Every structure is written in structure tokens, then in C-alpha cells.
Amino acid sequence: MRVTHLLRRLAALAVMVGLALSVNSFAVAQDRPSLNFYGVTGLIDMPSGESQPDGFFSIGSSYFGPIRRNTLTFQLTPRLSGSFRYMGVRDWSRLFCPPDCTGENEFPTYYDRSFDLRYQVLYEGRFVPAVTIGLQDFVGTGLQSAEYIVATKHITPRLKVTAGLGWGRLGSFGAIGSPFGTRPGVGGNLTNNVNTGQWFKGDVAPFGGIEWQINDKVGLKVEYSSDAYTQEVETRETFEIKSHVNFGIEYQRNATTRYGIYYLYGSQIGVSAQFVLNPRQRPAEGVRGPGPNPVQPRPSRAADPDAWDPGWVVQADAKGILIGNLNTRLARDGLAVEAMSYTATTVQVRIRNGRYDAESQAIGRVARTLSDVMPASVEVFEIVPVVNGIALSKVTVRRSDLESLEFSTQAAEALRPRVQITAAGPRPAGLQFAPDLYPRFSWSLTPYSRLRLFDLDEPLKVDVGLRLSGKYELGGGLVLSGTVTKTLTGNLDDPPPDIATALQPVRSDGDRYDALGDPAVERLTLAYYTNLGPDLYGRVTVGYLERMFGGVSAEVLWKPVAQRWALGAEVNYVQQRDPDQGFGFDFYDYSVVTGHVSGYLELGRGYHAQLDVGRYLAGDYGATLTFDREFENGWKLGAFATFTNVSPEDFGAGSFDKGIRIEVPLNWLVGQPSRQSKALTLRPFGRDGGARLDVDARLYETVRDYHASGIDAQWGRFWK
Amino acid sequence: MTRSFLRHRALVLCLTAMLAGCSNEVDVEPGAALFRTVAQTAKGAFGNRDAPAAPAVDDLQLRAALQTEGKPILRVTFNNSGVSTFLGAIALNQGVRTWSTNDGLTVSTRDGVLLATRGFGRDLMAADAPSAAQLSRGTGSHPRLHVYLDGADQTRKVAMTCRVSSAGAETVAVLGLGYPTRHVVETCTGDAVSERNDYWFRSDGHLLQSTQFVVPGSPGVTLQAIVE
């Protein structure tokens, strides 16, 4: 039970979330429903019929007796939410080990992961309660499995009543029958799958409770629990149940944070902490940074006919002077003009944006700066964003629109229909490159942390160290880059015992890489990016592509600029690297041809789907389906599942690869413009089947950002 | 030699600033950007910050020095911190003047009435506001519309209805000089918004000083015309 190295960013994310939570500036309605001990909307140990506001991200942490649970919940749509939980039961094997220390009894504390899905069937109305159907632990080991239908109705604005019916775990006490037949057993710890056969089967029991929010700060909860804690109490005696009525008092510290203290099951004191984040609300409010160069309006043609004289266009050194003037003014914004061509009325600039997360802001700033620098006869500004040498689109802005709309309260919505976003097209005649931009060297030295969750020995292991990154851009789409890490301290140097795997350990040996890679060459690659044709982009990357594999990776992407879909193909020939992450490939003597055909689709309203079909690192064939919800400001939350021709037995725990991923833009956290983000992928079971190569800078995300939908998502920032 | 020494020094600084991370380019590592911003703010990021309660004679010297700049100068005081800074005129578009600090914080005004800010974080993106002439009449009512970007960078408009009233004659001191003024108050209400702007007009009708809100619920800025 190990996880992939992708988890290493969790610590950084946790620190950032902590930072975000420490800033008390989120506008969250006080009547937002609170969370229960499972970290989902609910009472104390029981769920309720309500949901969190759309898009909210919540973290629930709770403890009572031997039980602790930590849960991430994301409200995927107004009705649908998903949760990922990590829980532990202390004293798990106290009764059994010694003498029997095998199987589940091997561990003094039992750790388990689970996924929940909840769907709100009805919104609360005047007479209708809020009704939610929930599937708890629906792909996990089954210990936490339960299904429920639950209704909540406000009696007064501050008093609400909840009643529900539970199956599985939530039907284990006070059952009133089994309307849908007996509940089949789960197949044991290692062959769990989606437990559809169990759903709503077996005993059903009622549960319910009352919540009274006395004032904006303090709330009381009382509930009747239908959970008998069969394993924890009856089989393993980890605690004692004397009553099924639980009490709690909760304190709303601020809009993001709520604490509670409880008396549960007639014998236990419990505590909980609940945090909520609204991705649409930046902790630091707006994005700071210097203001733009303002629009410099032209004198009227009548007032100053000389200024409008197109004769400048034949001046021999004009391009160099204009590029220099632009880049002097844009330097403060982290922007640069890479190349320029013009006629007397139209200018095209090819720009590099190293700073602004909002592509529209980079384009807007270049446009305004052009109004300062270009002679008056130039009316049309063609701005072509370039990333790694590839031109991604052409944004055409009329100078007179900038002049007339700069201070309009309709500036954003009035300008957009007058702007065209089209394919970048071929290089125009007379394109002159800025002389001093390439080669360009950049480096950074940052702390890093590498985290391992769900280790058999300990739930959390961590290494802390330094990461040195360097990038040498040769120009023309050639980029040499590398990353080296050195551990300073931590406890990842002691890997857990290997679990036998039927597959090449392409990911499950990640712990070995953690332990032996100090210092480690994480990546060292030479990449080449190019426009292969209209709407067609290409990438070739050679070298040490990721921690565990090196080789060559080639990708093509077809993405028409105005379309909400794209098609791509990638093929890689890679060898597994030595675990010390030096330059060798000797330890495993394993090479594989892996690659995928990928389809990408924007579903609208920020929902994205991706389907990858192909061959994975362990040589298995299959497909990965990914759904993401993306907020305009760059927050992304998504889920993926990979099904390959590896049998569940060969795959091991989890049966197939699946997980959730979260990406938080750094600008959201620090309030400074930045194109960086922190990403985290959580897998309940990181195994070797369905594993994809983790090559840097795949084309789709890069290209899409500068196409119509990527620019439009934050169009308002054109004027910022 | 010097260059390599400087590079070493950068490395040492990096190692000591490890929590923030560092880079030769701000854009590579935003942690470094944050660190730099904090350092700059500590040094006085807003340019020529005033010593509090400076003697009048120094104000006059400062005024004389600013007049030699040869461009209009506006003084902006951030009412929440009391920090004050001078902004020079950098653009004039359709009667709207944009003023900037040395490091690019800008405000835009029409005859002294605030229409936009940039670099404040939560900026006033644009405003439909009354003209200074309209306000100087000291009576009447008008609509006001403010445009902001929310946390997801979507446009949010705040519509208000405002009333103008006269608060009588006052003498106002601006950078060492006293002026007789008429004090005019604009009170605005909208959906969950209640704000107040104060304007002090000189006898020639020019707006000398004003206190105007930028974002609802925050203290706003005081603008003083120093060089016109």
C-alpha cells in the first residue's frame, strides 16, 4: 500500500491551504451547513440532507475515542459532492495480537481510505425538505461502507431537523427490516471494487437529529446514531457504546473555520475542526502588482497630421527601436516582445508572458503599451502569444477601441466582440526578432517536501529538502532544463517492505526512489516545441523525463483555436531509471514503449473531460477517463479512473487505478500574479497498473490557455 | 570578479531566505516575488513616504521641489494606513488623467473625481461617477456605478444612488498652504453598500482635496491636488 511520488506536493499544498485559512476574508454565508465526523454535510456522526455551496472545498478532521478521520470534500456541482477520507482506528488488534498478528491484526492502528459520493435529490422548499442520497466508502475496503437517504428541513431559520434511513454501517443498529434483500459480503481487503452489489441491501435503520444555530457563533447538535460500530466495538472492543444519542456544541470561529466538542455513544468525548474554502474567493482579495501602462491616445489627425504620417514604415532601424521601446516598458510586467513585423496600419508582436496567470491581462498590457509606442498610423494590433517558441493564437485589437473604452464601465464586455482570437498563422513577412532575448538562463532554489501517505507503517512520512531548478532556453523552441533535489531531513529513507507485484514495479517502487535518491536528478531534459502546421503543435523531449523513467517522448496536438476540443497523440520509449536517480538505467533493465491517443473536450461551465487510450508503463493496455472542474481563476479539481487489461488480482489493492487531483494557482494564494500552480494527485491505492509517464510540459494545457476559451475565462483582466 | 561575487551573494541570500525560495527571475518562483514584495514594502514601496507631522516649512520646500518636476502631481493618502505618496500624471485620455507612483500604482481621475485604480489588489476597474462640476453644486442626486473583479476574475458591478449635500465653508491645508474651500458630501447607498465621499472645492471651482472610497467597506483614499 504505497502511493506514487506525485503525492510529494501535498505538504506544500497543506502549508498553502493553512496560509489561506489564516486569512479571514472569505465571504461565506453563516447559514452554510456544517460538516459531520465523516467530513460531509451532516450532524455529528450522521449525514444530513443538505449540501455545501457549489464549488466549495472543505476539510473535516475529527477524533473520538480510538477513531480519527480526515476528509477532503469537494462540491463538484450544486447537487453532487465527492469526498476522500483517511481514517484510523487505534487499538485495532489489541484483543488479537498477540497471539494472532497476521492479516489485519498486523497493525496496532488500522488505517483505511474511502471515497464517498453524495447527490442532493431535492432542494429545500417551503414544504419540501432537502433530500440527499449518499454512498459512503463506495470503492473502498468496505469497512466504512454505507448508503443513506436523508432529509433535512428548517423549522425556523436557525433550527433544522434531519431524518434518514441508512444501510450497511448506517443500518447496523436499530434496524427495521431489509427491504431490498440481504447484503452480500465484500470480497476482502485486496479485491475491493465498486461495491454495486451491496448498495441499499441488508438491514435498514433510521437515524436523525436536530441542529440549532443559537447565534452566528454557537450551534448545538443532537443526534440518534444508527451505527453499531460492529467491528470496532463488538469484534475488537476498541471503545464502548452506552448510548446512541450524541451531543455536540460547535463554535464558528470565522467564515472558514468551525470547531466542535462532542459527547458520543455515552462514553466518548470527541472534537472536530471544519475548514471550508471557496476557490472563487482569493484570500488576498485581488491580484496585486504594478498597474499597466495606460492607453496613450493619439492626437487627432487634424491637430497633428505629421504624427499620422506613415513614412516611418520605411525607416531602416524602426523595428529595432520599437522593439526596444516596447520591451523597456514591458519589463516591469514580466512581458517581452520576441518579434515584430508591421505595415503602416498593422503591427504584429509575438510576446512572451512569464508572469500573468490571466492570459488576457498579458495581452491587455501589451496592447496598451503598443498604444504608447507605435506611431499613430498603426490602427490594428495583432498580439501573438508565444510559449516555448510556439505561436499559440493571434489576438487582434483595434487601437481606437482601446482609446475609447479605457475608462468605460462596459470596457470588458464592449471590447470583447471587437477583438478577434484566431489561429496564429504563418510568420508574417519581415518578422524581426528581438536581438537579446535568447539564449536565456533562469534558475531557482526552493524548499521542497516529499510526502508519503498511507504507508503501512505510518500514515504520513515526509522528507524536506532543497530543489535546484535550471532552465536554459536556446530560442526557436529548444529548452534545456533540469531539476536536482537534496534531502535535508525526513524519514523516507526507510522504505516499507516490498509487496509482491505481478507487474514491473513502475510506480510501487517509488518508496525505493524516495529512500535512495539523495541527491537526485529529478529531471534533465532537452525539449523541442514547434508549430507543425495550422492548429497543429509538436513536442519532442529527450533525457531523464521523470524520477523513475528516462528516454524519449514525442507528442502532437491538434487544437483549432476557436474549438472546445482537441486531439493528441503521444509515444514514448523509456527505460526505468536506477532508484538512486543518478544517470544509470542498470538496476531494473526494463524498457517499454508507451503512449496514448488523447481526446480533450470542454463541456462548458468549467467542466472538462479527457480520454486517453493506449499503453501504460507496465506494458498494460487500456484507457483513462478524467473529469475536471476548472474555475476561471485556475483552481482545478478532478477525478480520474484507468482501466487496463491487468486483472484485479495482478493489479493488487484497489483493482484499478483511480484518484482525485487538485491544482491551486499560486496567484490565488499569494495575491501576486504568477503562472505557477501547485498540483496534488491523491490515489487511494498507488499501484503499477494504469501508470502514465509523468513528462513535463505536455501540449494541451499550454496551448489551451491562449485559445479563445482560456483567454475568455478571465477576460475582465484585460483591463487590469 | 564583481559579477561573480554578486552571484555568490545572491546564492547566500537565497540560502538565508530559504523559506521563501529564490530565483534569478521573479516570475520563476512566486515565493521569491512575495519575499521581494515584503522586503520592498518594508523599505517603503510607495515611494516618497512622508514623515508624519512634518513642519510647515519642509512642506513648502517639498512643494517647490515637486513644482520643478514639470508635470501635474497628486498626493494620495491611504486612509487605512495613513501612508501617503505622490503620483505624477502619466496619461490623459478623454479628460481622464492617470497618475502613477514610481513603482506603478495608478489612480485615474476626471477633474479629481476617482474613476479607476490599478495595483491596489482589489481595484476599482471603472466607474460611472458624477462630474466635479455636478458635485460642486452641493445639491442633487445621481446614480453611481462601480466595476470590480471578483475572486474568480469575473466582472461585478455595484450600482448605487447618491445624494449630494453641502457641508459649508472650511479652510483646508494641503502641503503647507491653506485654502478656503466649500465642503461637499456625497452619500451613496446600494445593495448592502453604504458609502460616503467628501470633496473640498476651492473658490475657483477646482477640486482641491477629496476622500473617496475605492472598494465598499474599506477606508478609501484621500486625494490632494499638489501641482495642477
Report on the structure:
The complex is a heterodimer of chains A (720) and B (228). In chain A, 12% of the residues lie in helices and 41% in strands. Chain A is mainly β and 720 residues long. The longest helix of chain A has 15 residues, at 359-373. In chain A, helix 3 (318-330) crosses helix 4 (359-373). Chain B has 228 residues and is α+β, with helices and mostly antiparallel strands. Chain B folds into 2 domains: 2-43, no CATH class; 56-227, YmcC-like (YmcC-like fold), CATH 2.40.360. Chain B is built from 4 helices and 13 strands. Chain B has helices at 2-16, 30-43, 56-67, 132-136; strands at residues 22-23, 73-78, 84-93, 96-100, 106-110, 113-118, 126-128, 141-149, 155-174, 177-190, 193-202, 207-212, 221-227. A 12-stranded antiparallel beta sheet of chain B has the order 6-5-4-3-2-13-12-11-10-9-8-7. Chain B is globular and about 45 Å long. The model of chain B is unreliable at 1-7 and 26-54 (pLDDT under 50). Classes of the chains: A mainly beta (720), B alpha+beta (228). The interface between A and B is large, with 59 and 57 residues. Strand 20 of chain A pairs antiparallel with strand 1 of chain B.
Comma- or semicolon-separated keywords:
heterodimer; A: Porin; GMP Synthetase, Chain A, domain 3; 13-stranded antiparallel beta sheet; twelve-stranded antiparallel barrel; 32 strands; disordered N terminus; B: 228 residues; alpha+beta; YmcC-like fold; 2 domains; 13 strands
